[in-house]
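1st attempt posting a full record on here, be nice pls
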Amino acid sequence: MITVVIADDQAVVRAGLRMILEANGIQVLGEAADGAAAIELAQHLEPDVVLMDIRMPTVDGIEATGAISGARLQTRILVLTTYGVDQNVHDALKAGASGFLLKTDAPERLVEAVRAVAAGETPLAADVTSLLIDHYLGRNSLVAAPGAVADLTPREVEVLTLIARGKSNAEIASQLYVGEGTVKTHVARILAKLDLRDRTQAAIYAYEHGVVRPGYPST
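the predicted structure (as tokens):
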């Protein structure tokens, strides 16, 4: 069973999220009203996923995300936002979040995203990834690719490119005519070589270092 901690300063939001998740067989281990409590619960309970509101008192969701990610827990973080793709969302992803959801998203979208994150997938659709990257690169210069990129095989670069375009393991396997198990192996090696936490971090890395550029064909 997937386990979750909910971090949001509004009790009614936490209650609604708990109801949706538990109705779909996802166990809620605890709730936090601020980022400091979220960090404590994550370290103590080590849930599969933390649903993290960005705007919270004392310690905000971005700082809490960074602290949890820095602790090298197996816990993944799914950010909740009211405002869509903005600098706060990008900062949260850079801090270690695996994806984000709008608070106005449908309940089934929430459940789908939690399951995707818990499984190591990215819940970001290709169009959302594109918006996010365009937002970021419009405000930041490309960083020179580090030597670690040279350690990637041509096939791993190909897989990284497809990850950056929001492709799932199944879609990558179909496009490259290989099995999903092979794709998972490539993904694991990419993350290890580049010292990245997950697929979302890999996507940001790929764009940030010019491995993939906006406008590059996604098919």
